[in-house]
Amino acid sequence: MAQIEDRRLTAKQVKALCADAALLLGAARALIDEHAHALGAVRRALADVRADLSRAELAAIPVSRIKDVTGGRLRIGTLERSGYATVLQVLDATPYRLQLLPGIGAQTAGQVHAAARQIATAVEQAVGVRLDIERQDPHSGELVIALHKLVNVGPELPRALETARTLGTRLDLLLREAKPARSRLRMLFAGSERRGRAHTALASLAELLADARETRLLLAQTTADLLRPTVSAFEAWSDFEHRSAEYYSLLAEVAGEPVAADQGILPDDLLAKVNAQELDDTHRRVSLRGYQSFGARFALAQRRVILGDEMGLGKSVEAIAVLAHLRARGATHFLVVCPTSVLVNWVREIESRSTLAVHPLHGAGRDAARQEWERRGGVAVATLDSLHRLPVTEVGLLVVDEAHYVKNPRTKRATTVAEWCRRTERVLFLTGTPMENRVEEFRTLISYLRPDLAAELRGSDVVAGAQVFRKAVSPVYLRRNQQDVLRELPGRVDVEEWVEFSGADLAAYRQAVAEGNFMAMRRAAYARPDTSAKLKRLLELVDDARANDLKVIVFSYFRDVLGVVGAALDGRVHGPISGSLTAARRQEEVDAFSRTQGHAVLLSQIQAGGVGLNLQAASVVIMCEPQVKPSMEAQAVARAHRMGQVRTVQVHRLLSVDAVDQRLLDILGAKAELFDAYARRSDLAESTADAIDISEHALARQIVEEEQRRLAP
Known about the structure:
With 713 residues, the protein is of the alpha/beta class. The relative contact order is 0.08.
């Protein structure tokens, strides 16, 4: 600690020092007070919204439930005969009004009303809050306005609050300790111990104030942001539409979230270990949802894991939280490996959600970026296909995004990732689809992280039942599904749009079948655009979306099908996003689509746009044809139906009657069941691990042969 010769300071100088400290203390307290005021407004508005939602639920609960609550002790026949049909009606009546009913005395009326209040309390605690942009009632508007004030303070708010609280406690103590030094006479009559504490306090104050310039700016700017005038409901709802994830993150902090779903399926001892894990947010610039915090702490506690959260839950944010924690604890170099299509998105996410330096090892500047990373540290972002050119070096954390891309151990990218995993202490795999065709793929991913655990899974654990399997994989695998942790997520409506071939469509299809051309069979419905039944229905869906001012994304496996759609829409589309576009160009197309006011259409090849890009601006998804891999379609839909979506998502699948589409759906259904059994819930079916294994080549051959037999003259 720097020393200060406060005995040489005049009383005036000491007072000036204390006055300066008092000003800083006042700034800290002002920030805390303004934040408390803003938070109070959110809580009051939230209480009103909860009350509205609770009343709606209570209006649907029959009055007979009062009898259940009291164990059958209260007879409610008189209530029902008197027209009381719901718990809400009982709750709205006073005990006095109830006792006026024939056969109900004062005591019974009080008990009935108390039972109704008990049900109301339980409903209010359990009700989930979802802000519906399509139903902007007054109380929801007040809540969005209150949240807007805190959301727009920015990512520095948590750090500013922590600084204010720490500073407030320390300054308050130091000023009390330094109080005798403000008067020579008071110091004269103070004991030696008290004078010594005063001298030490003055020295600490001087040191603290000397380094307080940045702190003053942080407190002043944050307080000014909190004091900004309240915006209108229109402005708040407009901001919510574009940044709903931030609003819901804040709302989750205020309202609290259920714990069980956040924590996946883990045994008690592992839960205790994860919950005891600290999470340092010094280098993080984003608030975490409860389940995201748990996921980050799981990765830290277990060191080498697969985070298999369903798409749209923010796995990248959880990874960034882990990176930020490790940086705060002294690690300097990190590596993120991902498909080329999402490299730009990773760079953006790290830059906006942390203070970590990020270095994209891609494109013309990759060599310079690598040298800068090696010299300064930070997060290097490399593609899966270029990783083999990067020598294995020591990193604090290796993150592998879309880790299912390395499920085949015989590929070059997989062997490279495996080598990095062997040489790296902490590894985090991110994938919403750890298995696509066989449970063996799931084992392969685990083998990169925990070879011992993978070996055990080859034995009886794999077929011994759900509980045994969950226990076996819990040290390395954590998965949460949208329906469990995102109660605010809007609904999803899936519609199968069956159409019959036109004469020209059918002729093209028959020719493709005769030639044994599986890919031509899949896109035969668009071979004659002028008469295409699928294209006609697609244009009708786009017209409906335009009438309702909704954004649309059209997915197809085939570039030429997207060309047909684009031409039919007279080129009034964004994209198409395809494998030929660089990652930067794909992101530019998505940004332009998202910025467009009102209706817009984005075309995308499903294998290019279905991974990594955030497309929640779209609320209508059109699939031109079913996909061979169920995970590919699930990923694509999850680009729109994810955290940040504020409208119900419509998913329309264009399907041809009695043709290749129907054959595909039969097999896709079986593959989807396999994923649900082994990976979505970590729960085993009774069949063996390899019960279903249909490769794309085998699938195509099977469908072609079936259709050739069916259409044979």
